[in-house]
Every structure is written in C-alpha cells, then in structure tokens.
Amino acid sequence: MPKIVPHLWYDKEAKEAAEFYASLFESSKIVYTHVIKNPPPYDDAEIVGFELAGQPFIALSAGAYFKLNPAISLIVSCSTAGEVDKLWAALSEGGTEMKKIDLEALERAKLGISDA
User: Fold this and answer.
1) Is it the case that residue 37 has pLDDT exceeding 80?
2) 61: part of which helix (H) or strand (E)?
C-alpha cells in the first residue's frame, strides 16, 4: 500500500528543523541525510529523512524558491494539557501563533468530513 510522506521545504535549515522537531517527540529520529550537488549558480540541496512519533517526513533545503505558509496543517494528539502547553511553547517560539485548539471542546465535538 502506498505511504504518504509529507515534505517540508526550507531555504537552508532542513537538518536543523528536523533535529529540533525530533527532539520534541518520543519515537523520533533522523533517518538519513543526503546532499545533492548542484552546479553553480545553484546551491546544493540537502535532503533529511526523519520520523516524528513514527511518522516519516522529509525535509529539503533547496533555496528560497518558496515561502513558508500554512497551506497544510499537522495535528498532534496529546494526552494532557501539560503536554499541549510544552509542545505549544516550543513550536511557537520564533513563529506565528495561529490557533490553539481547546482539547475539551474538541473531545465533545462531532467531526465529519465530506469530499463530495
């Protein structure tokens, strides 16, 4: 069965980002790094395979061709409010806080998805 692996694009910070994210979640690790040598005037591209809580990701340092944006969201399920607060503090430092989800309200909500 095919597996979906999210890719995260960075200017030059793929390895640092992957190491940071892996430091926050259990069962996380850097799996591999690989550098693709590009001819001038292009910079080399670094590819970093990593896992967060067992979910595979790939981070790519490939230049400033794209700007970071909230086009996709990743949701982390936490067991306690303390765990949410710890991750929120670490992940929001230096970033832009968009919305913190109320866990109790989420648990009470009936969620549905329609692709029609």
Assistant:
1) yes
2) strand 55-61
pLDDT tens for each residue of 58-103: 999 988 887 777 777 788 888 888 888 898 888 888 877 776 666 6
> Nearest to residue 90, comparing CAs of 12, 28, 34?
28
Helix or strand run (H / E) with residue 84:
helix 81-92
Domains of the chain, each with CATH number or no CATH? 1-67 (3.10.180.10), 75-110 (no CATH)
CB atoms within 10 A of CB 50: 23
Q: What is the pTM of this model?
A: 0.77
- Nearest one of 89, 4, 17 to 59, comparing CA atoms: 17
**Alpha carbon of residue 112 to chain centroid:** 24
Name the maximum alpha-carbon separation found in the chain.
56
**CA trace torsion 100, 61, 9, 83 (10° rounding):** -20
Structural tokens at position 106: 């989420």
